């Protein structure tokens, strides 16, 4: 399984960005894609995830990001999106997408086997 994250950039506070994570390779029918971020000098933190099964999908988010961040999926494009609105300078970080071949809620980095390369998001004040 390979993941390619893209869509980062420089945005002013209050602006929006949409990150993309394209999943390729041998995926299973049930899997989870999570979004993480890591700011300089800080640990990698969970942002939210989407769990996909044959019967549907479900999303979950860190409480502090609920209402601002939204995860969605385009099945035809094998792509998961992270829509980020009302961005703040403290959202500045490298954002990563990761995948596990299990469905469920997983918020720890060591629960994910596959990782994308990361995309930089910088929010100016």
Give your account of this protein's structure:
The protein is an all-beta fold. 0% of the residues lie in helices and 54% in strands. It has strands at residues 2-6, 9-12, 17-24, 31-38, 45-53, 56-61, 69-74, 79-84, 93-100, 114-115, 119-124. The radius of gyration is 14 Å and the shape is globular. 31% of the residues are buried. The mean pLDDT is 95.
Rg of Cα set: 14 Å
SSE sequence, one letter per element: EEEEEEEEEEE
Q: Quickly give the structural class.
A: mainly beta
Please work out how many helical segments DSSP would assign: 0
Average predicted confidence as pLDDT: 95
Proportion of residues in β-strands: over 45%
Question: What characteristics describe this protein?
Answer:
single chain; about 120 residues; mainly beta; globular
């Amino acid at each position: 399984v390979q993941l390619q994250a893209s869509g980062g950039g420089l945005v002013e506070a209050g602006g929006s960005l949409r990150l993309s994570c394209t999943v390729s390779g041998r995926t299973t029918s049930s899997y989870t894609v999570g979004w993480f971020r890591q700011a300089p000098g800080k640990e990698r933190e969970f942002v939210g995830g989407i769990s996909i099964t044959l019967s549907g999908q479900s999303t979950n988010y860190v409480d502090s990001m609920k209402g601002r961040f939204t995860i969605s999926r385009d099945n035809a494009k094998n792509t998961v999106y992270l829509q980020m609105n009302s961005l703040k300078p403290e959202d500045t970080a490298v954002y990563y997408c990761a995948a596990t071949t299990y469905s469920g809620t997983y918020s720890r980095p060591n629960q994910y086997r596959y990782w994308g390369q990361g995309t930089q998001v910088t929010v100016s004040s």
